[in-house]
């Protein structure tokens, strides 16, 4: 996942900070730089709203469905603003708005199930579920609305309230989203706070917060987890991935090349579960690298608001610097840029879509999460070697296997150390599936009923069959 911004970015203007357009590198608006000491009042209002919100399941369903309709109706306002601050093509921003509305509808209709316990005693026992209280969510800049809704939709549906902090690189669309949602949700149920550190750290450690959910880098996730221990709040951490794709010997390269390219380069490669390493059989290695290079060279890169752009800029200057640094180190160590390999000579944070061949396996562009429009392609001789290389990482979010023998591909997928494995596609998810990683990719589960129950605590009631039985 994206790294946290350094303390001096974005720039400040009094009580606000500047928001930059990644297509130009210039400031185009600003957002409030809220002080950590303002959180007491914010969390207090969330706690007050929780008392009413948790007690009315039918009212929650009605409000969340109305919120979904409001988000969908506001797409023409939300999507261009999202593109302006994040950089992605406008069509992808509209898709993100639609996904936000869909997630609200999904969780609005999803409720916990009371479960009876049968243990041969003269007692009727059952497991019920209770909301936790105010929840804190800290969201990164790559999918600001979609990842926000992945946190607030299940939390609110479970009867909690939420204080949400977006990245200081992308606060504007989230603030507008909050305004849209306020037409359907009671005051205090969902509050957006914007600002730079230590605002996030203070929110994670606030004694009034009962659950902290975070998406971002591993180092920041560890810091969030440490902060949450101050109040013994539970945590859910989604900390990114270094997903590997393994091509089998029987793969038909031209049939999968488009799908494989976009699995790595959608949103300019700034996707936690994008393909970030590709392992190809030695016999097909050159063909695979060239097929992907052709697509990298031909794809239209430009401002997200330009209708012809298929790839936008990298979202912010620190992330661009990271991508440049990893690519330069790989090239200096002997890698070849079959396509790209450099920043584009134009205003903004544009980096040429890059396919790297002959990459040393210990290069940071292979071993770490580069999180940008760069894909290393590595050859393998034996399948066991490829599987071992795919698993040789501290991450474990996703992975994929590509080939025509589906039984064999599924057997290989079963050996990948990750939370989700795909066959002949990658990073495609549904609202009703669990989303979780292993190893350094996170703690806890999001998505589907698992996401709902992650925002609840069990409450067991024992009732005797007879008054004093």
Helix content: 25-40%
Runs in which pLDDT lies below 50 for 5 or more consecutive residues are: 3-9
Major sheet = 7 strands, mixed
The shape is globular
Descriptive key words:
7-stranded mixed beta sheet; 6-stranded mixed beta sheet; alpha/beta; 469 residues; disordered N terminus; 15 helices
Plain-language structure description:
The chain has 469 residues and is an alpha/beta fold. It has helices at residues 39-53, 57-73, 75-86, 90-108, 144-157, 172-181, 199-204, 218-228, 253-265, 285-298, 317-332, 364-367, 383-391, 406-413, 448-453; strands spanning 12-13, 16-21, 26-32, 115-117, 123-131, 134-138, 161-165, 190-192, 211-215, 234-238, 243-247, 275-281, 336-339, 354-357, 374-380, 398-402, 420-423, 442-443, 456-464. Helices cover 37% and strands 21% of the residues. The strands form 4 sheets. It has a 7-stranded mixed β-sheet, sandwiched between helices. α3 packs antiparallel against α6 (172-181) and α9 packs across α10 (285-298).
